[in-house]
Design goal:
144 residues; alpha+beta; 41% strand; molybdopterin synthase activity; 26% helix; Molybdopterin synthase catalytic subunit; transferase; single chain
């Protein structure tokens, strides 16, 4: 199984988990690991109820995403599909989907975790969170 980036995109459209799973399908894969990031109804950092999120991306965000995916995959025998949504997302909407297939589970888990952690640290996408009172705050800007 050779390393393959099957899908890497930034999208304003709802994300499709089944499409990500299909993109990493490989008869040599004995494992598929996924990560699905959803909009939750609360923010424990501010003790508030979330109404919706708005994600904004740098114009080159998709290029950054491709680079992140390729760096994390390296020479590992994996297939990878990853997408991040932008625009307005309601509670329950999918914000990010990562799917990784590999011959063995440990590698699939490791690559999946490394992809999402690197996205959180390096992908130039920011979110504006609005609570039920209408108050908005930016997240992911500045040091964490």
């Amino acid at each position: 199984m050779a390393p393959e980036l099957s899908l890497a995109k930034i999208s304003e459209m709802p994300l499709d988990v089944a499409a990500h799973l299909a993109a990493v399908e490989d008869s040599a894969a004995g494992a598929v690991a996924t990560f699905i990031g959803k909009v939750r109804d609360h923010d424990p950092e501010v003790d508030g109820v979330v109404q919706f999120l708005e994600y904004e991306a740098h114009p080159d965000a998709e290029t950054f995403l491709i680079d992140i995916a390729q760096r994390v995959m390296g020479d590992h025998p994996v297939r990878l599909a990853v997408s991040h949504r932008i625009g307005r997302l309601e509670v329950g909407d999918l914000a990010v989907v990562v799917a990784v297939s590999s011959p063995h589970r440990a590698l699939a888990f490791d690559v999946c975790r490394d992809v999402i952690e690197t996205i959180k640290a390096d992908l130039p996408i920011w979110k504006r969170q609005t609570d039920t009172t209408g108050e908005a705050s930016w997240k992911g800007i500045g040091p964490s």
